[in-house]
Structure formats: structure tokens, C-alpha cells
Amino acid sequence: MNSAVVSGSLIDVLSYAIEMAVVVWFFQRMRPRDASGSKVRTIAGHAALLLILAIYLTPLNAGISAFSAENFLIQIFRMALHLVPVFLYLLLTKETTAPIAAYLAAFMTAIYLTAQNLRAIIMTYVIITPPHTARGEGYIAGLIVTAAVEIALAAIARSLILPQYIDQIDRNRITLMSIVLFMMVYFKWMLTAIRELNMGGDRTTMVSFSLVTSFGLYLVLLLYDYSRRLLYEKDSAEHEKLTLQYEVRNAQREMQASTDIRRLHHDVKNHLLAIKSMAGDSAEIDQYLNELLPQFEGYEMQVHTGNQIVDAILSEKVRQGSQDGIRFNIVLDLTALQFMKGVDLITIFGNAADNAIEALRKLPEGEERYVYMKSSSFANNLLIKIENRYAGTVVMKNGVPVTSKKDSELHGIGVGSIRNAAARYGGTVGVKSDDDTHLFTLTIMIPLPSDS
Questions:
Q1: Where do the DSSP E strands lie in 326-378?
Q2: Taking 50 as the threshold, does the pLDDT of residue 271 lie above it?
Q3: pLDDT greater at residue 79 or residue 33
Q4: Whole-angstrom Cα distance, residue 94 to residue 73?
Q5: pLDDT exceeds 70 at position 183
Q6: Which of 81, 242, 337, 422 could pair with 427 as two cysteines, CB 3.0-4.6 Å apart?
Q7: Over 70: is that where the pLDDT of 432 sits?
Q8: Looking at the chain, which residues constitute the CATH 3.30.565.10 domain(s)?
Q9: What is the fold, at CATH topology level, of the domain defined by 303-452?
Q10: % of residues, the chain, pLDDT over 90
Q11: b/e code 351-378 from CB counts within 10 Å (16+ = b)
């Protein structure tokens, strides 16, 4: 067997292995599907990536028809042979929707096409132009440069926009992606034809134009999605700012009201107790005071967590929830969280309580409505668990429950705000829902300073 063919096949297999490593690494940050899901589905998702090997091992184009429509259709098929397996891999192994999985697979394919266009140029100048004895070195050079470029392109996209910031797919995204992929396939077809025909003359101009355009298209795609990320973060920040302003004012008002009520409760209750003791055998006065005294019960601040701001905000949430028959069972010791900023504490506990109250309000009449909050210490970390029941089912999207409200972009960032606040202190947030028991659990872990 020709040694050049053997070398080429070996390099193709290595190229495939590198490509799959880049794909798996690129989507590593995406939340995997629920562990209780089918293992067969997970295995099938990874097995789907084997289909991409056909791109590397099957000669799908022929030099005799390099500039033909048939060869262009073959290049489109090769592009689809990369996109579809990645789409299946994401859909079967990651917690995502079909439109988002398709878009992310297309973005990964755009990275692949950009790198392959560069490889086509390397093969044109290094493999065909020198004597055939240099084919092995040409293949190796193409592998190294292509792999380095693809890893670099994927690393840039992974750090700036993908995949954790893709939250919805609209018509503009679909249109732009379709144009970019079509143009990339066109230039790959042209570069492949130049290589197959070993064209001379103006091929340098054609190759340079194709290369610059391919990288330019990738840059347009990258900047578009990056701008969408910045816009989303800006909207989220503005909403969080408004929410925090309201919560701070509410907490300050509640703190003052709690002080006044406790003082009033203490004074009035003592007076009534004194009057009751003086009532002697007067049955009428005694009965009247016995009926009056219970009305002063419950005015004390019910929440005592060791943090005044959290006490205030949770006391307000307890008051709000009581209007809908919602009971709070709060066993929190947050004394160790004095190092956290007030706005972050309000973000965490305000959003958590609001989400729980909103879910409990949707329960049918007569069903028990409660919120359970408990804290514990573990390995110099403070663990906070918040549980509540819910109606129906909870749909998760990238680890965040999808809201049922019409203004989902406004209300769907509650858990995200909690995660951002916890992350500022090295903390993590976990979300779990059980549609059998209808129990929703939010777990927050905050590392404590070494001197805590």
C-alpha cells in the first residue's frame, strides 16, 4: 500500500480524534441531562459523534468535477455530516432544547469549517506543490496548524459567548447562521477545487480571499452572539438593580416597623396584664381581656437568623405569604455571614422567598403551603436549603427553572441572580425538582472565611 495513503489515513484519524476532543471540551460547561435519564440515550449521544469519522475517511469529492454543482452538494452534505451528529450529541446528553442544540451544533460546525478552510490552503501549498515525497510532512503540518487554529477559535467562543449564554433562538440568529454556513461551505468548495485541480495563476488571490472571508464570517458570528450576551446581561443588571432598590427600601421599612411594633407590643401587653391582675373576680372584665390579649400575639419579629437585614426581608415575606395561607418554617443561623454585603443577602433570600411564594400560590385550595429554610455547617461552608411544594411540573433549562410568566425574560433571572450573588463569594447554587413528590429544593453553599 502506498505509504502516502497510509500516512494520510493515520493523520485523518488523528484529526478526527482531535476534533471530537474539541467538541466534548467546548460543551463541557453545559449542564448534563438528569442522572436519572436513560443511559442508552447518553451512550447513543456519544456514539452519534462516530458519524463524523466518515468526513475524514471517505473521499466524497473528485477532481474531475471539482467546480461542478455536484461537488458543491457534496460539500453541503459533508457540512451536514458534522452538524447533525453534534446536534444529536447535545440533544441526548445535555439539558437543552432542540433549537438551542441545533444552533450550538451549527456554531461548532462553523468553527470546524473555518479551520478546515485553513487546512485546505495548507494542503494546496504544502502537499501538492512540492514533490510527492513531502506528502507526509504536509499532512503533519496540516494537522498541527488546523488543530491549533480550531482549538483557538473554540476557546475564544467558549470564553465569550458559548454555550452557557445562549438562552433563546430567534429568526435573526437562524438567518445569520444559515448565511454564514452557506458562505463557509462555498469557500471550502472553492478551496477544495483549487487543490484538486492544482490550479496555477491567480490561485493565490483566490485562496487569500477565501481564507480572509472565512475568518471574517466566523468573527461576525462571534461578535453577534457576544453582543446578545452583553445586552442580556445589561437587561438583567438593570432589573436586578430595580429589584434591590425595592428590597432595600422594604427591608429598612420593615426593620423600623419591627422595632416600633415590638416596643408597642411590650408596653401594651404589660398594661393589659396589669389590668387583668387587678380585675379580681369581675368575670366580664376578665373575659374581655382574655379575648383581647391573643390579638397581640404574633406581632413580634418571627424571624431570628442572626442577620438583621435577612430578618427584615424574611419577616416581610412571612407577612406576604400569610395572606395566602403560606407558612414559613425558618431555622437559619446566618451569624457567620456578616462578611457578605446586604444587597447580596437580599438578592439571595428575597428571590428565594419570592420564588417559593409564587409557586405555593399556584397550589390548589386546601393543599398545605409551606416554605422550609434550614442552614447547617459543613467543612467551613454554610449550607442553606430552601424547600417548597409546587403544582404541575418544573421545566429546567440550563439548570434554571423556566418561568411560566409571560414576561419570562424579566422574571426568569431570579435563580441566575442568586447564583451570581453566591458566586461573588465563591459559593454555588443547586436546583432540584421532583415531579413525583412536587418538592422543589434550592441549595446554596457559601464558603466561610478561615476566621469564621
A1: 327-331, 370-378
A2: yes
A3: 79
A4: 31
A5: yes
A6: 422
A7: yes
A8: 303-452
A9: Heat Shock Protein 90 (3.30.565)
A10: 11
A11: bbbbbbbbbbeebeeeeebebbbebeee
